[in-house]
Design brief:
single chain; alpha+beta; 3 domains; two-stranded antiparallel sheet; repeat; Znf_C2H2_type; DNA-binding; transcription
Length: 191
């Protein structure tokens, strides 16, 4: 969450292309999600039910993603395995770095604002906020981005067929549900 309790908008979900700012909150821990499917996925962390079982060793997992990650233990020689999720690493240092995601530990601090991060990489990306640097530039349209993940999502937008177009304002949408909601912005005077 941002300061002031505001949840940061995920890429592709700005007020321009969606017409609801509804968030889904986990009733057990209060974590919020932009997508209901992410909340449902997250809530499996709160249950002791482990419905996904490794057919090779019998270890069980509450999330299918963790089982898939665990399968790598059997596919390659990765002797360092996370006891929380089954993720395996070839190097102990990688396992130790990974295990930070299961704790609240944030050992990397921004010298400008004091915000703490779990990884050096996340700190490095954060520091671009203070410098204004946007090191990821799109070769197709020239738009620049601060975060590699947002840049990657943007690049995929150039490959999508934008098949739903508003005759009134010319705005295009790749998903029918966004297109269906769009006319409401004309009635509300937002476009």
């Amino acid at each position: 969450m941002r300061e002031g309790g505001e949840l940061p908008q995920p890429a592709g979900r700005s007020p321009d292309n969606t017409h609801t700012n509804q968030v889904f909150e986990c009733f057990q821990c209060g974590q919020t999600f932009w997508w209901c499917s992410n909340l449902l996925h997250h809530q499996r962390n709160h249950t002791s039910e482990k419905s996904f079982s490794c057919e090779l060793c019998g270890q069980t997992f509450s999330l299918k993603d963790h089982l898939v990650q665990h399968h790598k233990v059997h596919a390659e020689h990765r002797s360092y395995v996370c006891g929380n999720c089954g993720k395996a690493s070839k190097q102990k240092s990688n396992l130790l770095q990974h295990q930070l995601v299961h704790t609240e530990e944030r050992p990397f601090f921004c010298t400008d604002c004091g915000k703490a991060f779990q990884t050096k990489e996340n700190l490095s990306h954060h520091q671009c906020i203070h410098s204004g640097e946007k090191p990821y530039a799109c070769a197709k349209c020239g738009k620049s981005f601060r975060w590699p993940k947002v840049f990657s999502i943007h690049q995929k937008q150039h490959l999508i067929k934008w098949s739903y177009g508003c005759e009134r304002c010319g705005k295009s949408f790749c998903h029918l549900d966004f297109f269906t909601w769009h006319p409401r912005t004309h009635r509300q005077g937002q476009v």
